[in-house]
Amino acid sequence: MHIVVCVKQVPDTKIIKINPKTNTLDRRSAPAILNPYDAHAVQEAVKIIKMVGGGTISVLSMGPPQATEVIKKSIEIGADKGYLISDRAFAGADTLATSYALSKALERISKEEPIDLVICGLHAIDGDTGQVGPGIARRLDIPPVTNVIEVSELNEKEKTILLKRKIANGYQLIQADYPCLLTVGKEINEIEYSPLPNMIKAARYEPVIWTVNDLENVNRPQLGLKGSPTIVGKMFTPPKPEGGMKLEGNSDEQVKQLIELLTDKQDLFFTHVN
Amino acid sequence: MSEKFDVIVVGAGPAGTSCAYTCAKNGLRVLQIERGEYPGSKNVMGGVLYRKQMEEIIPEFWKEAPLERPIVEQRFWMMDKESVVTFGYKGLEWGVEPFNNFTVLRAPFDQWFAKKGVEQGVLLITETVVLECIVEDGKVIGVRTDRPNGEVYADVVVLADGVNSLLGKQLGYHNEFRPDEVALTVMEVINLPKGKINDRFNLEDNQGCTIELFGDSTKGNLGTAFIYTNKESINIGVGTTLSSMIKAKLKPYDLLDYLKTHSMVRPLIEGGESAEYLAHLIPEGGYHSVPKVAGDGVLLVGDAAQLVNAIHREGSNMAMSSGKMAAETIIEAKNRNDFSASSLNLYREKLYDSFIIKDLEKYKDAAHTFENNPQYFNDYVPMMNRAASKFFTVDGTPKREKQKEIMRSITGERGTFKVIQDVYRAWKAVK
């Protein structure tokens, strides 16, 4: 079993500041971290390998040389190998060009060891589009299953995987043939506290770094800024919510007021599903 | 059995990193373990980095280290409630290479320093707490961390785990602090635009200033306050021994608020935005509090060895030098392949032969003297202020008469004999 997890280095959006004049992210104001959803993706790969009793976990990232940090972080969680594609040719890529570049890197990785599963985070916390995962699946011509919340069974003989997937009003059970691509959210697992040997391995680890020349059959105009048709029309900070009220008085009085509010204005608080 | 290293360093502050860096540079296999999210995330100091000891580890570090400002001026303030007597020195020779000291912010500086260690081959792991030393037949052979499969082994374990050194305590090397052995310092980093700092402190862009404040800055308790200029922020803090705080029923944050709103201080920080609030224990027991620093397979460095000179607010420099001495000792021990207490005791000899213990020895009774004789802070500082006010007020009184009057008022308040005794006692404490 060979699982590849795609990971991204993102600014910590809990901390990041937005320049009020230009409405752009001030990337220097926040440390770069492993996209939290991707951490869960790596953790899920660890769980699956444990479930089937062995295999390899590779992680793949695209970014500047300092993105090796998120590969090291993935090694801490339990990945075996890491690949970084890093080249000026990839710079300025939107989700279309990114998924193209990553799919080319995945093709290269699959030559070293055939890939059974690709796992991506549901979306990155800086862009929030969730397009790269499905984009990769389409290019590799494998089925994408988004928003997976549980990997229930994996049948290596039949090459099928049983998945639970979150949908608007509940969840859906899916059996998919693999190779396939999953995207996962935070509820799929808890990140485990990494064992010390993983930490030491990560501190020592140097990922494989590929430039565009290391990838095969690449159509260069599809890479980087050139390959990115997305135009950012406008960026803005969401307006602060208005209105609302603050309950006053001691806790008994406040609870009473709250109950009155909840019973009087039910439509404000509950959505009725018919 | 888990992996074995030549050296495990616990902690990534100045002491630990100096030791790890020097060991790795000399070809030893070093594992450095830090509990914080990154080196510097848990580390606190007033903010002065001493050039000399840093340079002995990384020559010309100022060319690449994230420093704030070279310090060109040191001021000392003897504060009363609504006045201050000042004294200081400003010299432009401190503003050019090789500089004297710098202000730094610890988070970026410690990260940079640790990265230099990693470049030398140190394996640095973070977010990992060392729970205890693994001891076998009285010899430290490794550490146990809070992670699964968390044991790791080494010939020597260096404890650079800071002032509270839980690991040092577990080994029985030092005891719980007495309240007079340790100071609690609270500080704030206050953001201010560069231009405002330059104007208020009479500085240019690449010049820094430090102010040490005595007297009313601690409400007359044993301790000091400080104000240091960074590029675009000010560090302001105050510390007193725990015993004074207990005696005076003071809360540390109240003391910092008092300082920030003091009429002599307020204009310097006015309009600033508080960016960080930090608190830290500082070992101030000095010479008498230095624990056993070397044992079978183990060394203590920096704050963990209580190496702080409270009188001169030096600590990070002693940490760095002690880390380097520990590394040199380990390298020699490795050559002999002998990591016993007697072999590692070379570190103690180096320490006691250096400025570190010599300085601590010089001031070994100073804190005690000042603590037991509160008149130095309580009486003399206000007296100085009154004397200065009297002397510089132009009111038609002849200057000679004023001098006499001032002397009379000083000896009158405490008595001639007492004053002579106080001067002698103070001189003896710091001679």
UniProtKB/TrEMBL annotation, chain A:
It holds the Pfam family ETF. Residues 22-219 form the Electron transfer flavoprotein alpha/beta-subunit N-terminal domain. It comes from the Bacteria. PANTHER family: ELECTRON TRANSFER FLAVOPROTEIN BETA-SUBUNIT, PROTEIN FIXA. This is Electron transfer flavoprotein small subunit.
From TrEMBL, chain B:
Its cofactor is FAD. Its EC number is 1.5.5.-. Residues 367-430 form the FixC-like C-terminal domain. Keywords: FAD, Flavoprotein, Oxidoreductase. It comes from the Bacteria. One of its GO terms (molecular function) is oxidoreductase activity. Belongs to the ETF-QO/FixC family. This is Electron transfer flavoprotein-quinone oxidoreductase. It comes from Cytobacillus eiseniae.
